[in-house]
Amino acid sequence: MLSARPGLDEYFGREVILGIRPCAFGDSMVADPTWATLPVTVDVIEELGSDIHVIFSIESAPVHNTIAADGDPVTPLASGNSLWTARVSSRSRVRPGQRLQLAVDTSNLHFFDPASELAIGHAAAAI
């Protein structure tokens, strides 16, 4: 993985911002079995034909929120939780309130420098 992410090794032991897009998740029952897993409790689902959006909250360390389209900071949830969205296959039988093992395609993780907010580990970022 590091060979595909030039410069990421320079951040070992340092804080980074991690970005995970909804499409990097899958229901572990129908996803690639080599992907890492994350147990979650499903809050809400949105069935969208070929995909299901799974909305869940997790307790996490402080989350660096981005700026919303209107320029205002995004407000974090109460109790130290953060709200996430996963896009899973419509073959999933996921339902609200259910415990779910989400699979995470770690090859699609994104890393950002917290000071500059620039991407780390992409060939274009190394230039």
Strand count, sense and barrel status of the largest sheet are: 5 strands, antiparallel
CATH architecture of the largest domain: Beta Barrel
Reading the helices and strands in chain order gives EEEEEEEEH
Task: Note the overall shape.
Answer: globular
Q: Output the radius of gyration.
A: 16 Å
Look at the helices and sheets and give the structural class.
mainly beta
Give the strand order of the largest sheet, numbering strands 1, 2, ... along the chain: 2-6-3-4-5
- Name the average pLDDT: 80
CATH H level, superfamily name of the largest domain = Nucleic acid-binding proteins
* Integer count of domains: 2
> What is CATH's topology name of the largest domain?
OB fold (Dihydrolipoamide Acetyltransferase, E2P)
How many E strands?
8
**Residue share in helix:** under 10%
| Low-confidence blocks of residues | none
Terminal Cα span: 19 Å
Q: How much of the sequence is in beta strands? A: 35-45%
Could you give the topology of this structure?
Layout: E1 17-19, E2 25-27, E3 36-47, E4 51-59, E5 81-89, E6 99-104, E7 110-112, E8 119-120, H1 123-126
Antiparallel strand pairs: 1-7, 2-6, 3-4, 3-6, 4-5, 7-8
Give an overview in words.
The chain has 127 residues and is mainly β. The protein has 2 domains: 1-16 and 109-127, no CATH class; 21-108, OB fold (Dihydrolipoamide Acetyltransferase, E2P) (Beta Barrel). The protein is built from 1 helix and 8 strands. It has one helix spanning 123-126, and strands at residues 17-19, 25-27, 36-47, 51-59, 81-89, 99-104, 110-112, 119-120. A hairpin with a 6-residue loop joins β7 (110-112) and β8. The radius of gyration is 16 Å and the shape is globular.
